[in-house]
Each structure stands twice: as C-alpha cells, then as structure tokens.
Amino acid sequence: GLHRLWKAITVTHAGIRPGFRVLDIAGGTGDLAKAFAKRVGSSGEVWHTDINESMLRVGRDRMINEGLLMPTLICDAEHLPFPDHYFDRVSVAFGLRNMTHKDKALAEMRRVLKVGGRLLVLEFSQVWKPLAPLYDAYSFKLLPIMGKLFAKDADSYQYLAESIRMHPDQETLRTMMLDAGLGKVDYYNLAAGVVALHKGWKL
Question: What is the 3-state secondary structure (H, E, C) of the chain?
C-alpha cells in the first residue's frame, strides 16, 4: 500500500493549479489522473493514457464510477500523439521502467511540455547501500513467494524484482532526463531509495 503514499507525494510536488493541462503516461488504474483531475477543475484538462488497453479500461471505469470524465487514450510513450508545448505537467509513475527506449520516451515527454512545464517520474530506484542485502533477499526470495501465495503469480513478482535492478539508478536517470533536453532535474529518495521521484523542468 506504500504506492498510495508515494503517489500522494508526487501529486504534491506536481503543483497542479486550476486550468492546467496534464498528461498522465502509463496511468493504468488512474490513481494520479484522478488526483490531478480534482485539482485542475472544470477549466483544466487531464489525459489518462496507457499502452495496455485492459489496464486503461479499469482506470477509466473507476473514474467514471466516481463521477470523473476525462480523455482516455491508448498510446505509446515513445510516440505521443500530442502537439509540441501542450501540457503544463507530464507524469509517469512506475511505467518508465517497462519502456524499451527510455531516452525516446523522455524526449517525447519533454517535447509535449510547455516551456516552464514540469515532468514527474516516480519509479523504483536504487536503495540505500547498507539496506541492499536485506532488500535483495526480500525482492528475490520473499516477494515471489508472496506473489505465488496471494496473487497466484510468482513470475510477475520475479519480473518486478529483476526489472527494478535493470532500471537506471537515481543519478543515471537524472542524466538521462537532462540529455532528453530538460533544463533542470532534481530527485527525492523515498523509503531510503526504494523509490525515487525525479522532477524535470523544461526551460
């Protein structure tokens, strides 16, 4: 359940104001899009997107049940179907890790941002080194067992652990975001680096 706290922190850092245009990439079940929609108000615009249609439908239906209507679109982050300089904020939570060409996706996110706009990337990252042995034991030993017992799906939890280790660490991702053309990038470690929130500005 910690992902809810991490997403709430992301929403706070987003600094959403009424009237903003916001793009949520790999939005899945719609947690961030829903929070953003409540902040932009009727004068704003939030796009809920994902490459996975079934996940997108779950998120869309959840939001409809809560009385929130917003554009929902299947799209590939490496080829965003939006004009240049359109959004005030772009977010991706736990989705960049699964993108094949992260550099292309980051460049696309930067392209669709307005000058002065902000990109927020919430993703698993590199844990504080003294905790690494314990975290590895949890990830590769305990997590797949829990996945098998509670979700009947050990393989997905094994993939989760492996994909986290393949993802760039905090400084590497910061450099990638700068290389994608963002003018300034900061990051914040959450839960001792289990997760990091990167914020990039288009200057």
Answer: CHHHHHHHHHHHHHCCCCCCEEEEECCCCCHHHHHHHHHHCCCCEEEEEECCHHHHHHHHHHHHHCCCCCCEEECCCCCCCCCCCCEEEEEEECCHHHCCCHHHHHHHHHHHEEEEEEEEEEEECCCCHHHHHHHHHHHHHHHHHHHHHHCCCHHHHHHHHHHHHHCCCHHHHHHHHHHCCCCEEEEEEEHHHCEEEEEEECC
- Tell me which long-range contacts 186-193 makes (C-beta under 8 A, separation of at least 24): 188/9, 188/13, 189/125, 189/128, 190/6, 190/9, 191/2, 191/6, 192/127, 192/128, 192/131, 193/125, 193/126, 193/127, 193/128
Closest CA to 128 of 176, 173, 170, 185: 170
Q: What is the pLDDT of residues 141-167, one digit of tens each?
A: 877 787 778 778 877 767 777 888 889
pLDDT digits (tens, 9 = 90+) for 86-125: 999 999 999 999 999 999 999 999 999 999 999 999 999 9
Q: Do 91 and 14 contact (CB within 8 A), yes or no?
A: yes
Q: How far, in Å, CA of 175 to CA of 105, rounded?
A: 14
